[in-house]
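Subject: Sanity check before I submit

Could someone independently write out the structure tokens for this chain? I want to compare against mine line by line before I put it in a report. The sequence has 295 residues.
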Amino acid sequence: MPAVDSVLSQTFEDFEFLIIDDGSSRRSKEILKRFAALDSRIRLISRENRGFVVSLNEGLQEARGKWIMRLDHDDIATPERLEKQLAYLERHPECVVLGGAFDYIDDKGRLLTTIYPPEDNDTIQQMLLAGHNALCDSTLIFHRDLARQVGGYRLEMILAEDLDLWLRMSEHGQVANLPDVLCQYRLHTRSLSGAHHERQREVMRKACEEAWARRGITGHFEAEEPWRPSPDRSSRLRFDLMYGWWAFNSGERRTAAVYGCRAISTMPWRADGYRLLACALLKRSKANSDRQAST
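---
Independent answer below. Compare away.
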């Protein structure tokens, strides 16, 4: 399991590794048990499925350390992530939630692009209050006691439980992002989440409206666009093209070609997919040109 390996390979080694096995398959359970038998830092809680938010809160209550490093099961932490974040938190005791930059990879582990979110508290707060989650969950380390104090993850905020918690925690301290890439965040590019988009936006808006009321401000919700494809062809085409151009501009021409072919398969009568495929096969990306110029 790459996620587990990435935590065990951290350069900072003094930590408790709490794994919540929320009703996984028998094979996954056996793998996790083998990991736990080999490394005493792992504390494995394995039980029947109770849902994502319940599992997050269980981890929050079971955790013994001052800080909680979050990593979802499909993502991969960079080796120095914990060391860099703890060093920053030691220098900035006012910070209660800390994230960082991250790579988007697809379900095959291919690089799509690197995201560098804003680093300063004011900009992150403004984005959170508008519904934009400027804190990537799998890069985050946050203050355990404060998270408990504000009520943890709320079941009524499922689909936006993370945004809701960061909004509540950020009312009691500073939030920040490091400029360093801290994880590889896996996008399942063939997953279709359109069925949940409308409900997710409703819950995100509710989280923001409650935050506006708590802070006594007038806000404006901006995050209306879906961030995953829906089943209709136009949505699938849009995301195939976006992932493909991300890959192309990252210098990943083979990956760009894969998404060009997907776009053509989705809507063969549209020129967009052919244009992406042609560029992937024939043109140099800006990233490749920059690398060549610097050698």
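---
OP: Matches mine. For the report I'm noting this point. Confidence is low (pLDDT under 50) at residues 291-295.
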